[in-house]
Write a structure and sequence with these properties.
The chain is α+β, with helices and mostly antiparallel strands. It is built from 13 helices and 14 strands. Helix 1 packs across helix 3.
């Protein structure tokens, strides 16, 4: 805690350059409105301002970065926003401050950063590395755990090495004959997704052989350009979709299990963020031993990847198999996102949950200085 009555100045990193910019802005707005005002002063910081020269971004994104860095503000591109979150996204856009102005100079220092960035450039370890270099404390996992969890191929290897059941699959680097042959060997139905993206952006279920190549090509649209681009083709496992959040530092707490029932083919971007597209049952109606098994797996996954502060592990339970699909190091952070919903079921309201994340980050920074 900062000494005296001075409030802790929290920079909420929101927006960014990923395909999940919209939901990041919604999270930023809700976080700013929910952190207790008597303890925290909140500033919404957009790291897009750092990225005006990043060749991986489109020219439109780089121009928006230049406008933001120069104080000109950012106009969000016109497209359909997740239903029910439009007002939060718009209010966050109006309140954004370029992160370059606050993080990279001594004008008005930030005590701690709360990261509400999802996907590339936020959840993958790169912003964590920048903050480490600048010596700014931040919430959540560090560089290595973030990078491992974001790379679905590496995460599967780590989880499998830890003894967890993961989907059988193949990694492809294009749509050449050898790649398609490896993809077909997985069998149908198959689940196709980018290796390094979140919120199921670019993911699809393939039922017919003729649809496999287009699905792979679509997934590549959401991979970073260059030789590192990869797509994962996995067996489609039938079962009940579960997710378990883990919070804490020295003592880990697995929150109540959530079961997801979606009206869509799977829990895709619209199912996650458009109101009414999915039912999220918390606590899930499961036998006690199955719920405990899911929570144990989530803790094991959290520890295997070296996560810190928070994570959320997505699982499929088929009756005989409990399969670990992915680990999210920065889970959704609107009030109705899965981790906050599980926290409420455990008696932790949204503001208290956010305060815990901030306090854990500051405590971790104090330990490093000792």
């Amino acid at each position: 805690m900062v000494s005296g009555t001075k409030r802790i100045r929290v920079g909420v990193l929101t927006g960014g350059a990923s395909a999940e910019r919209d939901i990041s802005l919604a999270a930023g707005a809700q976080i700013a409105a929910s952190l207790p005002e008597d303890r925290y002063e909140v500033v919404l910081l957009d790291p897009l301002a750092f990225m005006a020269r990043n060749a991986s971004l489109s020219e439109e994104q780089r121009e928006r970065a230049r406008r933001l860095a120069s104080g000109g503000g950012v106009l969000e591109p016109s497209h359909q926003l997740p239903r029910g979150l439009e007002s939060q996204i718009e209010s966050a856009s109006r309140a954004l401050v370029p992160a370059t102005r606050v993080i990279a100079n001594d004008g008005a220092p930030i005590d701690v950063v709360l990261i509400a960035l999802f996907g590339t450039w936020g959840e993958d370890g790169r912003i964590q590395g920048l903050l480490d270099t600048l010596g700014v404390p931040y919430t959540g996992s560090g560089v290595l755990a973030s990078a491992l969890a974001m790379d679905k191929v590496m995460a599967k290897r780590v989880l499998a090495a830890a003894g967890l059941d993961v989907p059988r699959g193949a990694v492809v680097r294009g749509t050449a004959a050898a790649d398609l042959e490896a993809a077909r060997a997985v069998g149908l139905p198959a689940f196709v997704k980018p290796v390094a993206n979140g919120s199921s952006v670019g993911a699809s279920i393939v039922e017919r052989a003729v649809d496999l190549e287009p699905a792979i090509a679509n997934a590549f649209r959401y991979e970073p350009p260059g030789p590192e681009a990869r797509v994962l083709v996995e067996e489609r496992i039938s079962g009940r979709e579960l997710t378990v959040a883990v919070i804490g530092t020295d003592e880990l707490q697995a929150l109540p299990v959530i079961e997801i029932k979606t009206k869509r083919a799977f829990f895709d971007y619209s199912a996650k963020y458009d109101a009414g597209e999915s039912e999220e049952i918390c606590p899930a109606d499961l036998p006690a031993d199955v719920a405990q098994r899911a929570q144990d797996i989530a803790i094991r996954a959290h520890e295997a990847l070296g996560c810190r502060g928070m994570s959320r592990t997505d699982l499929l339970w088929s009756g005989d198999r409990m399969v670990a699909l992915e680990v999210n190091t920065i889970p959704g952070m609107t009030q109705n996102s899965l981790l906050p919903k599980a926290a409420r079921a455990a008696g932790i309201d949204f503001g208290d949950l956010l305060a815990r994340f901030v306090d854990w980050a500051l405590e971790d920074a104090r330990r490093r200085r000792r």
